[in-house]
Predict the structure.
Amino acid sequence: MAVRRQCVRALCGAFAAVLLLTAQAGGAERGATIDDFFGTYVGNARLEYEDEFRDIIVAIEPARKGFSIYTSTVIRKGPVRAIEGVKWRSETQVFVQSGTPNLYEPMLRESMFAQRRRPNLLDGDTVAWASIRGRTLGIYALNVLADGHYELRIYERTLTELGMDLEFTRYRDGVAVRKLTGLLARTDDD
């Protein structure tokens, strides 16, 4: 039980430090607003130190008092697209403005059949948030693993002249275990 408390304290400390740095960086730099990110982007990315590639579509749109972000990813080994073992994933997340400028929290889905509850890290739930720092939209997802260790995934999308640079890093207990970088072009409106 004492080990679990120490793990939770360490995790809460790390979580608070990331939130503090995110809020400080967001206030120190004046840059983009969420409206600047609205649009559809296409491009590709590569997993660092591996022969694994991604074809990516990202669509960021206004939603309620925040934004929705749709990501579609085709995962393939090697630079050739038409090969065996190709995987596809897609995900939509919705974030709403928190009480802090440039800091967004996930929109909690409400249902008349389900009791509304906040995520619980120790039950395996994911705690997520988004922030804008300068010209970068960061989306963070934190999980406590079954063995008590933690995993933090950071998706950073930085606006460029062409569209956006993409960087994904997965940390396990503070150590980077996976990194993906890519370039996405903003598509023209029809």
User: Anything to note?
Assistant: Residues 1-5, 10-14, 16-29 have pLDDT under 50 and may be disordered. Residues 2-37+93-186 form one domain. The two ends are 58 Å apart (CA to CA). The first strand starts at residue 39 and ends at 47.
